[in-house]
UniProtKB/TrEMBL annotation:
This is Peptidase S54 rhomboid domain-containing protein. Belongs to the peptidase S54 family. It is a multi-pass membrane protein. One of its GO terms (molecular function) is serine-type endopeptidase activity. One of its GO terms (cellular component) is membrane.
Length: 70
C-alpha cells in the first residue's frame, strides 16, 4: 500500500505486470516443458520495488509509525 501511495496505482501495476511477464518468460527459456501458472514473479517484483522505497523514505515513514502508535 505504501508503494502505491508514493508512486501511484499505474506504476505499481506496471511493476507487477513486468514481473509477471519477465518471470514467465525466464521460466520458458530455462525449461520450456514447464507450464507456468501463478503470480509469484509479480509478487517478487513488488517486494523488490518496495525495499528501495523503504530505504529512501525511512525518515518520513518513521514519523508516520510514531504517529500511528500514539
Amino acid at each position: 500500500m505504501l508503494l502505491e501511495i508514493i508512486n501511484g496505482w499505474w506504476r505499481v501495476g506496471l511493476i507487477y505486470l513486468g514481473g509477471v511477464l519477465s518471470g514467465s518468460l525466464l521460466t520458458s527459456v530455462v525449461d520450456p516443458r514447464v507450464y507456468l501458472v501463478g503470480a509469484s514473479g509479480g509478487v517478487y517484483a513488488l517486494i523488490a520495488a518496495h525495499v528501495p522505497t523503504l530505504i529512501l523514505n525511512f525518515r518520513s515513514m518513521n514519523s508516520w509509525l510514531e504517529w500511528g502508535i500514539k
